[in-house]
Amino acid sequence: MRVSVQFHGVHRAITRVNEIRLALASNARVSDLFKHIQCTYPDLQLSQDDIMVSINDQLSTMNHPLNSEDKISFLPHIGGG
Q1: Which Gene3D superfamilies does the record associate with it (predicted)?
Q2: Theoretical Cys-Cys bridge with 62: which of 31, 58, 71, 72, CB 3.0 to 4.6 Å?
């Protein structure tokens, strides 16, 4: 199956891309994709505690199964004061 991963904020600045398309196993979960992104873009230094996951514009979890043509975003937490 193929999915799209969109990068936002600091993640976009580090990867220098807006979006990538990837082929994954048919039984892949968000956690599998997360590991792939960590290996492909080690400069992101992603931590599951520091991001939120969105699938097709809906918040999700790392354990959620992926479907072909899903749009996934790993959203950096935004803070301020």
Answers
A1: 3.10.20.30
A2: 31
Q: What is the β-pairing status of strands 51-55 and 58-60?
A: antiparallel
Give the right CATH number for 2-76 from 3.30.420.40, 3.40.50.1220, 3.90.800.10, 3.10.20.30: 3.10.20.30
Q: Residue 79 has which token pair?
A: 């803070």
Q: Is residue 34 within a helix (H) or strand (E), and if so which, with residue range?
A: helix 30-40
Domain residue limits, the chain: 2-76
Task: Specify whether the CB–CB gap between 75 and 8 falls below 8 A.
Answer: yes
